[in-house]
Amino acid sequence: MYSNKERQTFRIYVIILFVGAAAVLLWTGYSQIKISGDYENYKNRLSDKENENIRFGYSLSSAMKENEKLADEKTKIEDELLKIRNKSKDLEKEISDLKRKQAEATKIYEGVLKAEYEYSRGEIKESALILIDIKENQLTNEYLKQKYGYLKETVGGEAAKKFYLDGYKKYLNKDYIGAIKELKISLELTQNEYFSDDCYFYIAYSKFYLNDYKKAEKTIETLIENYPESTYMKDAKDLLTLIDSEKEPDILQ
C-alpha cells in the first residue's frame, strides 16, 4: 500500500492536473469567446461596408440620373436660346425692312413734292429729272399717285422738248457726249413726240463721230424699226452704209 508521503504527493499531482485542466478549459473558453467576438465584430464591419457600398452605389446611380436630367435640361435650354436668337434675327430683319421701306417712302414723297416745287419755279428739266428717278410702282399713297401722274403728264412733253433742243445745240457744237446725254433723257421721258426720231438720229451720228460704230449702228437700226415714216429714213440708211465702210478696215485687219 501507499505510504502517507506518496498519498500526499499523489494528491498534489491531482490538484496540479486539475488546475492545469481548468486553466486549459478557461483559456479555451476565453479564446472561443474572443474569436466569437472578433468574428461578430468582423461580421459587423463587413455588414457596414456592404451598407456603405450600397449607399455609394445608390448615390452614384442617383448622381448619374441627375446628371442625365441636367444634360436634358441643358439641351432644352440651348434649343430655346437658339429659337430665341432666330426669332431675334427675324425681328431685326423685319425692322430693317420696315426702316428701308419707310426711308424709300419718305424719299419718294419728298421727291414728288420737290418735282412740283421745281416745276412751279419754271425749272422744267430739273422737275423732269426728279420724276425720272421715281418709279411709278413704288407709289403706294393715292394722293402721291395722282400728283405724280399730273406732274409727269404736264412736265413730260415740255421737258422732253427742252432736252431735245439742248441736245441738238450740243450736237451742232460738236459736244457729242453732252448731246447724247440730253437726247437720251428726252427719249426716257417720251418716245412719242415729233422730235423723238430726231433724238435717235442725232444720237446715232454722235456715236459715229465718237467712233463707236457698233452703238451707232444699233441706234440707227432702232430708228428705222420704230419710226418707219421718219423723214430721216434715207439719211439713216446712208449712215448705215457709211458705218459699214468705216468698219471694213477693221475686218481686213
Can you give a write-up of this model?
By secondary structure, the protein is an all-alpha fold. The protein has a domain at 68-160. The chain contains seven helices and no strands. Helix 1 (4-120) crosses helix 3 (142-172), helix 3 runs antiparallel to helix 4 (176-189) and helix 4 (176-189) packs antiparallel against helix 5. The longest helix has 117 residues, at 4-120. It is rod-shaped and about 185 Å long. The mean pLDDT is 81.
Main β sheet profile: none
The end-to-end distance, rounded to whole angstroms, is 169 Å
Strand content: under 5%
Mean pLDDT: 81
**Computed CA radius of gyration, to the nearest angstrom:** 57 Å
Write down how many β-strands occur, each being a DSSP E stretch of 2 or more residues. 0
Helix-strand pattern: HHHHHHH
Estimated helix fraction:
over 70%
Number of helices: 7
Instruction: Give the helix/strand class.
Output: mainly alpha
Could you name the ranges where pLDDT drops below 50 across 5 or more consecutive residues?
none
Shape: rod-shaped
Descriptive keywords:
single chain; 253 residues
Tell me briefly what this model is:
The chain has 253 residues and is mainly alpha-helical.
SSE arrangement:
Elements: H1 4-120, H2 124-132, H3 142-172, H4 176-189, H5 196-209, H6 213-226, H7 233-252
Helix pairs in contact: 1-2, 1-3, 2-3, 3-4, 3-5, 4-5, 5-6, 6-7
